[in-house]
Structure prediction request, 64 residues.
Amino acid sequence: MAMKIDADLCVSCGACEEACDINNAISQTDTAYAIDASKCDECKSAGGEQKCLPTCGVDAIVKA
Prediction:
C-alpha cells in the first residue's frame, strides 16, 4: 500500500517532496503535490516510518 496526498488539502509547500529522498515518489503537479504509488513503499526500505507524513502541516498525506 502507498501513501497519497489529498489535493484539496495540499498547500503546495514542498516539504513532503524534500522528505521523500529515498524513493523520490513525490512530485509537484499543476495544482498540488502527488505521490507515485508505484514508487511509494511507505518508507519500508528506510525502516518503516513514513518520512513525508510528519512534514505535512495540513494533514494532507493519508494511506491510499
